Amino acid sequence: MVNLSCKIGDLDFKNPVMTASGTCGYGPELEDFLDIGRLGGIIIKGTTMEPREGNPYPRMAETPSGMLNSVGLQNKGIDYFEKNIYPRISGYDTNVIVNVNGSYIDDYVNLASRIDKLDKIRSIELNISCPNVKMGGMAFGTNPVSAREVIKAVRAVYSHMLMVKLSPNVTDITQFARIAEEEGADSISLINTLLGMAVDIKTMRPKLATITGGLSGPAVKPVALRLVWQAARAVKIPVIGIGGIMNAVDALEFIMAGATAVQVGTATFIEPDAPVKIIDGISQYLDEHGISDYSELIGCINR
Amino acid sequence: MAKRVQDLLVVENRQIKKDICILELSSTVSLPEIIPGQFVQVRADGSQDTFLRRPFSVHDVDYEKRTLKLLVQVVGDGSAALYDLKAGDKLNIVYPLGNSFSVPDIGDRIMLIGGGSGIAPLYYLAKSLNDQDYKPDILLGFRNSERIIEHEEFGKYGNVLITTEDGSEGEKGFVTDHSTLRNNSYTRIYCCGPDPMMKAVAKYSAIRNIFCEVSLENLMGCGFGICLCCIVNTTRGNICTCTEGPVFNINELKW
After folding, report:
1. Which domain holds residue B41?
2. Per-residue confidence at A131, pLDDT binned at 50, 70, 90?
3. In which region does residue A74 sit, left (phi positive, over 0), alpha (psi from -120 to 50) or beta (all else)?
């Protein structure tokens, strides 16, 4: 038996594989395909104080080895979540983590304090990196002053494991990783999507109604890996790697580059049981290589 | 019925046109219940350019033989790879997905309207209606006589009417130009085809207060409600075509 468990902040994970926000709904959507209890964690869709309708259609375009999306944080809001979703998913035998969003710092703060009171949710992912909203999102995460402000304000009201999701759309990722650490975040997750676009030459129009959107999938993996490696060398808090992870090999690359855990995102659209296959694949790799604990691999390329 | 990911075996690939084929796929285990209007998400392994799965309506189901059929029109590299599949090849699908056409009321005068490859889900619907002793009128629209597909097959389950845009077969014009829509008072219309056609049928139905359902073909990321990409604007707000549809009552759509 190999050990896949880890601790991030004060939270225990049975394994280092989570489902990324925006790619697993609230959880029930995946129940037909996998046992949620096998996951290290499930990061449910980006939640805001008020319900959001998101951006107009079309909000998706397939691109080479990836896809652009401009969903724009469509969600039913925190009231609906507390009343209708939370009771349904609070029994999951895994870490349920809520991805938290806002247009103003107060939104983030109010949301974090609301979720702080939910017994079965022991972590939030502070999303300061969504590229698809006019206000908030990436605007916070690409400006060092506002990034610091929002993390500081949320840390003051949130008592459990605080994960900050970073944007790749910055010049120096280590600057934002350090800010998160300095302001008391327990971990950072990266990358959110890369800002991109696509044009339909038949209609001579952008493929997305919002013109630009977030790129995800294998196309972003080398970039994500580089950013995770840089961030992991810059801070002591755990780094959670995200970006084009399709299989166990990809996940292992992130771990070896310095990630303590990973999130599987776009892969789940194509293979809805991908996260579980990745957990099994990591175990198998450890078995085959006579490694008893996956943590030996974290950042091993630097040694 | 629980959704599943499964490798199916290609039993037959009937290439009925240079760009349209009907794939018959078989399962080694019992098929889940599949209702008319539902779809599958296909992984086009033979196409390097195709990253996401592609949705296809279920064209027919045979529970005894454990087979289902998909009607595939080539529009890009992914569908081209499906067109080239041979008997014995495997095809990985996620299914059954989406909602279904509603069950008619007793005494309904039913019309099925399909355009081009949009006839795909209507065939299984016609067959199922026939099992329930309905004999619908089936109006199929094509560009010209060369593009007509499956009309004889449909004839087993209803009274088939044809329009072609150039008048080379059936009545000339679009489906909404067909005389049957002037001469008969239908009480229930099921429609699938290109967007402009469905919008025209929806308009025809709305004016006459006829119950009408359309099957939408929005771009999809996942097919089971996790990516929120295939949304359609409805009276209930932006909702996923893949889970709340693909079949919608026209009164719900903000077209």
Report:
1. 4-97
2. confident
3. beta
